[in-house]
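Both lines are given unchanged directly below:

***
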Amino acid sequence: MGNEKKVIVIAGPSGSGESTITGELLRLFPNSMRRLVTATTRAPREGEQEGVDYHFFSKERFSKERESGNIIEETYVANRDTYYGSYKPDLDAKLAAGFIVIINPDIVGARYYAEHYGAASIFIMPGDIEELFSRIKNRNPGISEHELAQRRENAQHEIDTEQSFYSHTIINANGKLEQAVESIIEVLKKDGYKLV
């Protein structure tokens, strides 16, 4: 695979802004970057498109794809009874076309891509934990207190136990998206990614 860096991991607790940041990078570098479209067993939400937002698979199909080696790493979210996994045909096609591929996995995926693809891994931190929760609430106005408490616990756990694994940590404070994106671009250039 040569020494050229082609895979980037951008991750963080739910609400940290990893999707927004990924979107911003894709907008700034449309000629060199693409996002990996993850496979999932959850149903599409309003407005989501097959092959654009996710590859929506039944559990049977997900299982078959895994057996044939097309799901190269996966996560099971027990409280939602949902699988998420990296879909290798999507990754291979984008790499073969010469793109740098951005992946938004959890810690399992981050480790996998660092090990197998030499990926830079960037952990997005909220300015503070309360910021995270106002973002989650704004995104899901009907969210229950129980679900919110669960997410708070998960986010705190990710920050406490997983952040140190990532090669870089970037703070995405409210209203400071541009600075976060600029910091990531600097990190990627230092790490040897060719951004055009």
Remarks:
- The mean pLDDT is 92.
- The beta strands are 7-11, 33-35, 39-40, 55-56, 71-77, 82-87, 100-103, 120-126, 168-172.
- Helices lie at 18-28, 59-67, 88-96, 107-117, 129-139, 145-162, 177-190.
- The first helix runs from residue 18 to 28.
